[in-house]
């Protein structure tokens, strides 16, 4: 099966202070760069699992964009770039306890994309068996995708500020992954069960609401609404766990496996890794972990 991801690719930059932050002054510390973006992370996870995956994304027409494309393609992802002047970039400033004090998300390039630039890659999503979309693109682009693509669509809500973009298209979503805050922003209630009921009534086929260490609530019309807890995990870095979870749902669908079990094990592998996409991830490791966790 072929998978097409339509989503964001970020350059993630983290500035970490060695000492307690002093505002309005220079703070000794270290800077680090990594690859990010929900769509890109999902595609990379799938590439590492030997899924035939393509990524339609915005990249800067500059060395940063070229580096992201090159490194992502090394993970067996076919990258189809929409080139813009600036590279979407996320900058976070952490204190000496690794707590984030401020972050800046420079995503203007995503809003510069027009429909013709997405339409230029129509053969990519038309020949895919399923499509994953994140909410980084503008409402105009998301409207086009939901109204044009006739494939099972998987969606990552990404954030409370972006989840509203999918409100008009809930009946076109096959699988929706979101957290409790995003679910509240979308449905208007903090009651998870009620949120799932509302989303099912609005036409979403499968809903997964992650609640951190409390596990996952999920629902569909066949199985009803259920909850599964998580086993203990020595968390090294929580960044990227949600992206890995969604990649696991897709991998499960591709291989006709228990998608939730795959997703939970994918999240575990990522939580135990310092990277947002684990360098230790392989298809063999995932299947072995699933066998051990039966």
Structure description:
- This protein has 11 helices and 13 strands.
- With 294 residues, the chain is α/β, with parallel strands linked by helices.
- The two termini are 26 Å apart.
- The mean pLDDT is 93.
- The strands form 2 sheets. It has a 9-stranded mixed sheet, with helices on both faces. It has a 4-stranded mixed sheet with strand order 3-2-6-7.
Quaternary structure type: single chain
Largest sheet strand order = 5-4-1-8-9-10-11-12-13
SS elements, strand count: 13
* Major beta-sheet overview: 9 strands, mixed
Instruction: Please tell me the CATH architecture by its name.
Output: 3-Layer(aba) Sandwich
Q: What class, by secondary structure content?
A: alpha/beta
Principal-axes geometry comes out as globular
Terminal Cα span: 26 Å
Helix share bin: 25-40%
Strand coverage percent: 25-35%
Averaged pLDDT: 93
CA-atom Rg in angstroms? 19 Å
Spans of at least 5 consecutive residues whose pLDDT stays below 50 are none
**What is the H level of CATH, i.e. the homologous superfamily?**
Ribokinase
CATH top level class name: Alpha Beta
Tell me the number of helical segments per DSSP (H or I, 4 or more residues long). 11
Q: How would you spell out the order of helices and strands?
A: EEEHEHEEEHHHEHEEHHEEEHHH
What is the CATH topology descriptor? UDP-N-acetylmuramoyl-L-alanine:D-glutamate ligase
């Amino acid at each position: 099966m072929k998978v097409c991801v339509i989503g964001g690719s970020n350059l993630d930059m983290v500035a970490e202070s060695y000492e307690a932050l002093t505002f309005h002054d220079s703070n000794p510390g270290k800077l680090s760069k990594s690859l990010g973006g929900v769509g890109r992370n999902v595609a990379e996870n799938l590439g590492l699992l030997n899924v035939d995956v393509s990524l339609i994304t915005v990249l800067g027409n500059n060395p940063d964009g070229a580096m992201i494309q090159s490194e992502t393609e090394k993970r067996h992802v076919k990258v189809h770039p929409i080139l813009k002047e600036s590279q979407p970039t996320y900058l976070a400033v952490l204190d000496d306890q690794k707590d984030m004090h401020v972050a800046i998300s420079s995503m203007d390039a995503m809003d510069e994309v027009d429909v013709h630039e997405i339409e230029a890659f129509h053969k990519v999503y038309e020949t895919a068996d399923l499509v994953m979309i994140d909410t980084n693109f503008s409402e105009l682009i998301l409207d086009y995708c939901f109204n044009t693509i006739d494939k099972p669509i998987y969606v990552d809500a990404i954030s409370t500020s972006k989840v509203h973009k999918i409100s008009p298209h809930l009946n076109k979503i096959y699988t929706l992954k979101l957290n409790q805050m995003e679910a509240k922003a979308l449905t208007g209630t903090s009651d998870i069960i009620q949120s799932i009921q509302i989303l099912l009534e609005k036409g979403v086929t499968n809903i997964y609401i992650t609640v951190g260490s409390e596990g996952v609530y999920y629902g569909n019309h066949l199985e009803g609404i259920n909850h599964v807890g998580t086993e203990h995990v020595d968390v090294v870095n929580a960044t990227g766990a949600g992206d890995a979870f969604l990649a696991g749902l897709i991998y499960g669908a591709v291989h006709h496996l228990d998608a939730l079990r795959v997703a939970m094990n994918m999240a575990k592998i990522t939580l135990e890794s310092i990277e947002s996409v684990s360098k230790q991830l392989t298809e063999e490791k995932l299947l072995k972990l699933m066998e051990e966790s039966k």
